[in-house]
Amino acid sequence: xSDTKVxxxxxxxxxxPTSIDYPALIEIWEAAVRATHHxxxxxxxxxxxxxxxxxxxxxxxxxxxxxxxxMIMGFAGFSPETVxxxxxHPDHFGKGIGKKLMEYAITGRSIRKVDVNEQNPDxxxxxxxxxxxxxxxxxxxxSGLPFPILHLELP
Length: 155
Known about the structure:
One of its GO terms (molecular function) is acyltransferase activity, transferring groups other than amino-acyl groups. The protein has helices at residues 22-36, 42-59, 97-109, 121-129; strands at residues 5-8, 13-15, 61-66, 72-78, 82-88, 113-117, 133-138, 149-153. It is an alpha+beta fold.
């Protein structure tokens, strides 16, 4: 585990992962995507997986949330203004893990923006419950694929 402790409570720690943690992060990413991104086909998952692992993780400020046994339950990647990725392992859905990561993004990093796939209504509802509102829509994702992106911001 990284020595960098960012936020701590009795039941979890938010910390900065290292490249040693990347296999666990990509496993969480894949499990979460398979559980939530039903619009993606297998070839899309296999296309994005090495990009996430070999490029995207290093392009953002990564933070993970660990339980008391040091197991990573979820992670987020931030740019200076935007939550670029947020994934929670399906075993931990509904436990407030995503909310804790977003609270850190908002209060600890002053992040006010997030993008979400339009075809992922559960994620959209999650962000809207946290106060985010749709500001605009892009018909294609960042890779030019026909997966519309909703751009959300806090008021």
